Amino acid sequence: MKSSIxxxxxxxxxxxxxxxxxxAIDSLRRAFEAEPDEAAVGALVDRFLEEAQESLALPALRAxxxxxxxxxxxxxxxxVDPGPALATSTMAELLEQQGHTRKALEVAERALARNPxxxxxxxxxxxxxxxxxxxxxxxxxxxxxxxxxxxxTREGAQV
Length: 159
Description:
Blueprint: H1 3-17, H2 21-34, H3 39-54, H4 59-72, H5 89-97, H6 101-114, H7 119-128, H8 134-154
């Protein structure tokens, strides 16, 4: 940790201990702006936030600390819909491993619509289907049929 960050954190702790909360937040904010990923900065934000929660007289300080804490949290990852070309059992397994249950099941259903006997896609579907609520299961089945009919229509088959 850089010495300038360490000094700012020490100042922030000192101001906080003396009840000089505005100055403490200012020192902490400067340390945060210089090194937002520094673990010691995050720990002090968490500690001050916990202590500020106990005091009802510090709503503005809590808001500033919450904003710093939120900026440290990673952005949520969105799952891009893999097109029909990527709707494979491998993609379904990868999505499952990453915890994207609903999307993994959709991809497995699409892979099965293309190749009904694919063992890996069947395994993914069988593992994930029980984790969904009954309505979600119905939706997944209907989406599978819809994908099947769309594919058949594109291929020129009579549906």
